Description:
38% helix, five-stranded mixed beta sheet, 341 residues, alpha/beta, seven-stranded mixed beta sheet
Amino acid sequence: MKKFLQKILRPWLTKLASNASAPNRKNVFRSLTRLLNNLKEKPGKKGVVINIDIAKDKFIIFSDHHKGNKDHGDDFASNEPNYLAALDYYLLNKFTYINLGDAEELWKYKPKEVISKNITALRSEAKFQQENKYYKTFGNHDLTWKNKLDVDIWFKDIFTLPLPVWEGILLKTIINEKPLSIFLTHGHQGDKMSDNNAFSTWMVAHIWRPLQRYLEINVNTPANDFTLRDKHNIMMHEWSSRREYLLLITGHTHKPVFASGLYSDHPNNTVNNNKIAAAEKHNKLKPSYFNSGCCCYNDADITGIEIADGKISLIKWHWDNNSSQRSVLEEKELTELIKEL
Length: 341
């Protein structure tokens, strides 16, 4: 019976989740603009502004872990060894860690379940905070952390309080005598699921969670709906391409993107799903948009964005022969990238 229900319900549930999460261009643009302006005009309210030196400062950006409670619906459990190895590497090499949201899966699980089952990973993250090299933002699946009281209650025995959890982060630097801003946020702005979080949370907690656990159906909309995640990424690129000397880095879609796909024809690393012909792409695309991918791929890989040694890179950590291996998928000197902004 379970296999029959899986076959019947999987397409319907996937389509239902995709329709509910469809982004609205006007809302996306308005929300991103409002947040960026808030960071510039009122730093410390919704986010933090950090002046950086690209020759010295190093950042690793991970998003979308979706840490669960280790049951069948936990998308992160099999990726944890890979993730822990990556964190050890970045801590040793003195990177600042920016956690870009949806780190904890709080639509399907209660905070108590997630925190208790992920103490090891959370303590590894806390080591960055001890070095003053940790920044955390919230996404739509861990919107709970927008509430300072919840953060204090659930993280008090792991992190040093206060632990600010921001909506956005703005890195600012000067390259070739030009100001470069790197705007980081989760990227859920403007979609229906995120605009109606109270209802969405109830639906997931009371209907989807027990159904998922029984049927063992692992549907994470941004990761599986190619059309939907392309819509998100295209809108993010369109918004960022209208601004001078600005890079936008988000997560949310689970689809890694490097420099809007300008330097690659790989179908999994473009904002346009190869719909723009190669000859036209270099005239139309501005390398202003990046997406960190996620830390919950079903093959245990994780991806992220590095900013280090004057470069920005899309990296992957892959578990192979009982060890975690880091590889650079794409890389660009920031001094070269800024010429096209």
